[in-house]
C-alpha cells in the first residue's frame, strides 16, 4: 500500500501538511509508481485537522482525508496520462 503524506520536517519538529503543500513533489512520486508498474492501493495518511473538527484522531480526521483522496485521485489520473503519452 502506498501511503501519501507530506510534512515540513526539521530536526526539532514534525508538522503535518496538506498533500500539495509540503516539500515532496507528489506528482513526481506518483509518476514513479506508474513508471515501475505499482498497481496496489494508495491512501492519504497524516493530514492536518480542519476547522470544525474536534481532533479526536489527530492526523486522521475526515475533512483532511477527503481532500487527500481527491488529490491522490487527480495525481493518479495525471500520472496515468503521462505514462500513456497523453497530455
Query: How large is the share of residues in beta strands?
Result: 5-15%
C-alpha-based Rg, rounded:
14 Å
Largest sheet features:
2 strands, parallel
Strand arrangement, largest sheet? 1-4
> What is the helix/strand order?
EEEHEH
The total count of strands amounts to 4
- Helical proportion, percent range: 25-40%
Describe this structure in words.
The model has no long low-confidence stretch (mean pLDDT 83). The chain starts with a strand and ends with a helix. The protein is built from 2 helices and 4 strands, in the order E-E-E-H-E-H. It is α+β, with helices and mostly antiparallel strands and 87 residues long. It has helices at 26-35, 62-83; strands at 2-4, 6-7, 16-17, 42-44. The strands form 2 sheets. Strands 1-4 form a two-stranded parallel sheet. The protein has a two-stranded antiparallel sheet with strand order 2-3.
Amino acid at each position: 500500500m502506498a501511503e501519501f503524506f507530506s510534512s515540513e520536517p526539521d530536526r526539532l519538529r514534525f508538522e503535518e501538511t496538506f498533500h500539495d503543500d509540503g516539500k515532496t513533489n507528489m506528482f513526481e512520486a506518483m509518476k514513479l509508481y506508474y513508471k515501475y508498474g505499482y498497481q496496489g492501493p494508495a491512501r492519504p495518511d497524516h493530514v492536518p485537522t480542519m476547522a470544525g473538527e474536534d481532533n479526536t484522531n489527530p492526523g486522521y480526521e475526515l475533512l483532511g482525508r477527503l481532500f487527500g483522496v481527491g488529490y491522490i485521485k487527480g495525481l493518479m489520473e495525471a500520472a496515468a496520462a503521462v505514462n500513456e503519452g497523453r497530455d
